[in-house]
Specification:
The complex is a heterodimer of chains A (about 300) and B (about 270). Chain A is α/β, with parallel strands linked by helices. Helix content of chain A is about 35%, strand content about 30%. Classes of the chains: A alpha/beta (about 300), B mainly alpha (about 270).
Chain lengths: ~300, ~270
């Protein structure tokens, strides 16, 4: 749904994007992380047709953002890193203006505004001035405005910045609901725990390029719907050789690290696979002291990717 | 209707300046009328000269026409120069540019709303301007040509204000540049003209002024962008509008068109929203 190939963008002497590439499949909730100045916002602006690129290609839904900008705008909803509102309008007027701006007419116009009010939970405040809303409410209003024309792709640049924990939880829930409806979402955020919770994949960006994680990949798989891969640490009493043999002889499993008293096993498959491995080890007489999933969190991976590179 | 126009007009009429500025504007114009009338008739009252009603009418009309233009030139940057920068300052420009509104639609909405407000001021002053009728010496043609000329100048300056607004990030900078433009075209051009005229006359026969068209074009040229000269040219009879008035109209239209083109370019190309 989103295809970025070798894109470059320079501002005066600063190379904001330097050959960055990205592919986001339809229906994915895709994260984008990197340090400040990595090029995330520039990429979002390129995707949303706000900025021209120097070289490379960017397609959204198969449309070229450079030559088919107007059609791309019909397809996308863009939430900038600092979304603004018209303080002197009422909530309904604000939504009606953007429904007009997206050329919604008649019954569709009314339905879109009513749905946006309901979706954002601001129905009872539709007559209130936008100025009177809290920061979280304004953020919900702007997100609702972004969804007025029923976009197939959402580009969200730091949508959770400044939100309180409850508002962040609500946002995560709303984004999951949108993904379930088939909306493709590209979200950039510094709040890694949020991304880890909702994203299927996360791309690393640093210095305008694809940054490689500790495993050498620039895209981290998080909640891939097919064949989840999990890492388990098995602590043993005694020789680990029989356990290694059992693991390697079982389909969908492999030993990725082994010491005399410890194995690290990669398991592809459902929970039954994990239970079957533990059962097989115990039945074979292996003394298992511990059997735990080893979570390699996003924060850890982020540190591994970027910490050593900081000045 | 262009949604930008509806939005802009709604927002402008909710601002305090929506009623404050027209009130102040009419008060100032009223004061100018009263002052001019009393100064003009005072001389007659002292018996020094005998002033006819038509003379009072002409003096009132000319004073009002120039005062009105000066006042409106001072007010145009307030309405136009902040139009696009306010969208940048409140971070709403990205929302407009990623909607299906085109750059010309955004420009047109901003232009119409700021220009209509200036026109509102111009229209509210028409009854005051028409007071000159009561004294005679002024006909509908003078009122029409002066108003049309003022409208062309204000349209051009609104477009220039919008260009400043698209080029800068903050309203204060855009407004300052717009005022600088007003000063350059109104004052600096006149100074340049008079300095060069002096130099020309001292180099040639100083006895007689060769007439406007007797001057070389490079000396006359600065005045074609001077709004007060343009207004002065509008007081000619219909048959004498060519070439001076038409040349001024062409220059102001060209400046407005260039400002429009550069504003659209800025709106289309700038990602610093």
């Amino acid at each position: 749904m989103i295809d970025v190939q070798q894109v470059c963008k320079k501002f005066d002497s600063k190379q904001a994007l330097d050959g960055f590439s990205l592919h986001v499949g339809a229906g994915e909730l895709f994260g984008l992380v990197g340090p400040n100045g990595a090029g995330k916002t520039t990429l979002m602006k390129l995707l949303s047709t706000l900025l021209p690129m120097d070289s490379g290609t960017v397609h959204v839904g198969g449309l070229d953002v450079t030559t088919e900008g107007r059609e791309v705008k019909r397809l996308i909803g863009y939430l900038p890193d600092q979304p603004g509102v018209y303080q002197d309008m009422s909530v309904r007027e604000f939504l009606e203006f953007f429904a007009d701006a997206f050329q919604l007419k008649g019954a569709r116009h009314r339905a879109a505004v009513d749905h946006a009010l309901e979706w954002s939970g601001l129905g009872e405040r539709s007559g209130s001035s936008v100025e009177q809303l809290s920061f979280g409410m304004k953020q919900r209003l702007v997100l609702a405005k972004t969804l007025l024309h029923d976009p197939k792709v959402l580009l969200l640049d730091e949508p959770a910045t400044g939100l309180d924990p409850m508002a962040r939880l609500d946002l995560r829930k709303q984004l999951k609901e949108l993904q379930a409806k088939g909306v493709t979402i590209l979200i950039s955020s510094h709040i890694l725990s949020d991304l880890e919770d909702i994203c299927t994949q996360i791309a690393l960006i640093g210095g305008g390029r694809n940054a490689a994680g500790a495993d050498g990949h620039s895209v981290i798989q998080l909640h891939a719907p097919q064949a989840p891969v999990r890492i388990y640490e098995v602590k043993l009493l005694g020789d680990s050789a029989p356990a290694v043999q059992i693991v390697n002889s079982t389909a969908g499993m492999r030993v990725i690290e082994s010491t005399s008293s410890r194995l690290v096993v990669e398991i592809s498959g459902a929970d039954e696979q994990v239970a079957a491995l533990l059962r097989a080890l115990v039945l074979a007489g292996v003394n298992v002291l511990g059997f735990d999933q080893r979570a390699v969190g996003l924060e850890k991976r982020y540190r591994l990717a970027f910490q050593e590179k900081r000045p | 209707m262009n949604p930008m126009i509806r939005k802009e007009l709604r927002q402008r009429m909710r601002e305090r300046r929506g009623w404050l500025l027209p009130s102040l504007y009419l008060l100032v114009l009223g004061a100018v009328v009263a002052f001019t009338y009393f100064v003009t008739t005072a001389e007659s009252g002292r018996g020094q000269t005998s002033i006819q009603g038509s003379t009072v009418g002409v003096v009132l009309f000319l004073t009002l026409a120039y005062s009105q233009l000066a006042l409106l030139l001072l007010l145009v940057p307030i309405f136009s120069a902040g139009s696009i920068t306010i969208e940048k300052e409140q971070k709403t420009l990205a929302g407009l540019l990623t909607s299906l509104l085109t750059a010309p639609q955004i420009w047109w909405g901003k232009f119409v709303s700021s220009f209509l407000f200036v026109l509102l001021l111009l229209i509210t002053s028409l009854p005051v301007l028409s007071m000159a009728f009561a004294f005679g010496g002024i006909g509908p043609w003078e009122i029409f040509s002066a108003t049309l000329t003022t409208v062309i100048i204000l349209g051009c300056m609104s477009a220039v204000g919008l260009y400043s607004s698209s080029a800068f990030q903050r309203s204060v900078h855009a407004t300052a540049v717009s005022y600088a433009t007003v000063v350059v075209i109104s004052v600096v051009t006149a100074i340049i003209f008079f300095v060069r005229l002096q130099m020309y006359q001292s180099a040639h026969e100083p006895a007689a002024f060769p007439g406007w068209y007797g001057l070389p074009l490079n000396i006359r040229a600065p005045m074609y962008v001077n709004p007060f000269f343009f207004l002065t040219a509008s007081f000619a009879s219909p048959k004498q509008l060519y070439p001076t008035w038409l040349a001024c109209a062409g220059v102001f239209t060209l400046i407005g068109a260039l400002a429009l083109a550069f504003t659209l370019r800025n709106l289309r190309r700038r990602g610093d929203v």
